[in-house]
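Write out this protein's structure.
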Amino acid sequence: MDKVVDTPAAAVADIADGSSIAVGGFGVVGVPEFLIRAIKEQGAKDLEVISNNAGVDGRGLGLLLADHRLRRIIASYVGENKEFARQYLSGELEVELTPQGTLAEKMRAGGAGIPAFYTITGAGTQVADGGMPWKYDTEGNVVKESPAKDTRVFDTFGEEKEYVLEESLAPDYALVRAAVGDRHGNLVFHSSARNFNPPAAQSARITIAEVEKLVEPGEIDPDDVHVPGIFVHRVVELTPEQVADKPIEKRTVRTEPTAVEG
């Protein structure tokens, strides 16, 4: 039952080329930064990543992007990372854009053993009709686009509406970051770091968590557990220096007002 691994490097050592990986975090919040750095050092390539976005330039998944280690990404947001946009538009990276709530549910459903589900999100748009550009060539031509999805009309609250069938996601691995974890893999996330981390953790065949504080089994109140240990396979405790390494994505400051006579 003790799932603690000594280092991030040991935790990701078996991730092979071509693996699919769900990654928690939103912007720079709740990102498993040191597991990602360990993959960079480990050398796995041609990876398919499922994540809200691709991090920012120079941090998180941005590190793997810069090394051209990502083949494909399923995401809901492509902003804040110039290299991500450049690779996508130049034909170096395949990108499947997915509505944000749908992306979270695709992971959650994958972890629950639900192969697909209907949602109203995307009905009547290219999400359902197909034709969204997944991959460009070097000349800017679309060489791969999203297929049309099955749709069905349901009577909901006395009104017939069209719903879109979305297939769930169950990747090979998941990387997440938690504020607290115990040796059995039970995880607690702090504030907004409880974003894509729980559904990512639940979705994968092997889930690896880096935790800021490691405690003994029984120290976390069962009512406080956000992800039960049954979903988690490896736990890595971060050092105090690693815990303190938290960037601010956009620093906004207010200019102090100057004194005005009178």
